[in-house]
Amino acid sequence: MNLKKIAAVLVLLSFLRSTGGIAQTPDPVSGGDAVHISLAEALDLASRGNFDIRLAVHERDQASADFHKSASVFLPRIRLSETFVSSDDPLTVFGLKLKQERVSPADFNPALLNDPPEFQNFTTKIEFQQPVLNLNGFFGRHAAAKAADAAEAKIIRTRHGMELSVKNAYFALVLSSNSQEVISASLEAAKTYRDQAKDFLDRGMIRMSDYLMADVRFLELGIRSIEARDATRDAGDRLRILLGLPDSLTLVPTDTLSFLTVGDTSVDAGRVFAARSDMVAIQNGIDAASAALRMHQSGWIPSVNAFGSYELDNEHLSGATARNWTLGASINWTIFSGFDRIGEIQKAAARRSELETQYEKMKAEGGREISSALRALESSRLRIEMASRAVEQAAESFRVMSDRYEAGLERTSDLLQSDASLLNARLSRLQALYQHTASVFMLEFLLERKVTL
Q1: 103 in helix, strand or coil?
Q2: What is the pLDDT of residues 365-382, one digit of tens each?
Q3: Is residue 38 within 8 Å of residue 254, measured between CB atoms?
Q4: pLDDT of residue 285
Q5: What does the alpha-carbon distance between residue 349 and residue 288 come to, in Å, rounded to a whole number?
Q6: Which residue ranges make up each domain of the chain?
Q7: What pLDDT, in 10s, does the model give residues 5-22?
Q8: So what's the pLDDT on residue 320?
Q9: pLDDT digit string (tens) for 151-172?
Q10: Are 214 and 190 within 8 A, CB to CB?
Q11: Distance between the two ends of the chain, CA-based, in angstroms?
Q12: How far apart are CA 345 and CA 357, in angstroms?
């Protein structure tokens, strides 16, 4: 195990100890450490390092930076500069002397005007530009704000999606582990029946075909046990990858599959879509696109900006022989810029239309998904009821069959068939519980609220 994997193990163990949920034992199958973990711990662990959430956060940070950048639409720009000039150009020399307020009558001597000696000047200057009216900038800032809101909503939806994936993976591991336990118990019983059948065969109480049937049943369950073990390993690997844990850890879930009591499942689609984070994100995207369209359209309107400067001039760096200042305002109006602005307006309008169409599509698909989830929830509830009754009946039938078999009143094949029916009923009930649990989680994901009591 390299240093990164060791660090990951230490982080996980430290986290689990801090939550009081650590139960670490050696795993005899993999040879690594078996870590017992609850669903709440798995969700908390996944939220700390999930790649999709981290990417969504980075996207949000970029959008927030764009919004902060747009503050330049009303904040001034201030620049401080120091400039050194040395020249014997007639116009430059005379202008620098004016700046230093050193012009004298002697400077108008034609000989000096035409061929002045080298002259030096240091200029210390503070300049500012103050936006006064820039409608395109204000609309651009609004667009940046809405884009940041959309990115924030995307983080929320990404987190809900991560939780759904972890929940499904966690209980898939629970389902595989419980199925493996049920099959292992049936395998032990099948071994007992086979040994008993061998004893009956040796005593001449049953035929060879009955013994072979018991042996075949034992071998079949052995194969199913291996398949169940592999399925448990695969489910554990999927959960471990979601949690970002090293290969050496074997996760053992501490939560169990149980019937989740669901409360009121009435749905107001309008309210759901108005508040659900992915719908909020795209609605903010539409608002941002609308603001971007107005930004490009307002480019036809003149912009007004104020400016000013304060300047110190001297022949030495630290001096301040002369001072001057300038204040002003400008109105800029780009009357025609080729088809650049027209193209931007058309592109922004198309982008807004695209998002509006996507929003309508999401609403249509969202309504269908919610209806499907509600039907799946009701169907899973009925399947659990039927599967529970099937387990009860199969268990009672097996009990009666076992008693009659012990009394020599039933054949081995009948007993094995009854045992197989009981095993299948138990596995079907576990599968129904998992489907019900997954349906509840899916409905909560679609509604973004708890539905269990």
Answers
A1: coil
A2: 999 999 999 999 999 999
A3: yes
A4: 96
A5: 11
A6: 3-70+138-289+358-447, 77-134+303-341
A7: 444 444 444 544 444 444
A8: 66
A9: 999 999 999 999 999 999 999 9
A10: yes
A11: 44
A12: 18
Alpha-carbon torsion 399, 402, 404, 406, what sign? negative
Nearest residue to 342 (alpha-carbon basis) of 299, 304, 292, 287:
299
Question: Hey, what are 102's tokens?
Answer: 């050193």
CATH T-level fold of 77-134+303-341: Outer membrane efflux proteins (OEP) (2.20.200)
Instruction: Write out 330-342 in H/E/C secondary structure.
Output: EEECCCCECEHHH
Question: In the numeric block, which tokens belong to residue 56?
Answer: 């969504």
CATH fourth-level superfamily of 3-70+138-289+358-447: Outer membrane efflux proteins (OEP) (1.20.1600.10)
Beta carbons of 305 and 130 less than 8 angstroms apart:
yes
Geometric angle at alpha carbon 250, from 249 and 251, rounded to 5°: 110
Sheet of 303-314, strands arranged across: 77-87, 119-133, 303-314, 322-332
Helix axes 135-202, 412-447, angle to 10 degrees: 170
Q: Which among 123, 124, 159, 169 has a CA at the least distance from the CA of 49?
A: 159
Position 86 scores a pLDDT of 95
Classify residue 91 by burial, with Cβ atoms within 10 Å: 0-12, 13-18, 19+: exposed
What residue type is 6 in one-letter code?
I
Pair of tokens at residue 346: 């058309």
Q: What is the DSSP letter of 352?
A: H
Contacts of 346 (CB under 8 A, 6+ apart): none
Say how far apart CA 215 and CA 201 lie, in whole Å. 12
Measured between alpha carbons, how far is 27 from 25 in angstroms, rounded to an integer? 6
Do β-strands 33-37 and 249-253 pair in parallel, antiparallel, or remain unpaired? parallel
What pLDDT is attached to residue 27? 52
pTM confidence score: 0.82
**What pLDDT, on the 0 to 100 scale, is given for residue 179?**
96
The whole-angstrom separation of Cα 30 and Cα 427 is: 25
Residues of the chain with pLDDT under 50: 1-13, 15-23, 28-31
Determine the Cα–Cα distance for residues 113 and 91; give it in Å rounded to an integer: 8
Q: Which residues contact 155 (CB under 8 A, 6 or more apart)?
A: 53, 56, 57, 60
Question: What would the pLDDT profile of 168-189 be if each residue is shown by its tens digit?
Answer: 999 999 999 999 999 999 999 9
Task: Kindly report the number of other CB atoms within 10 A of residue 264's CB atom.
Answer: 7
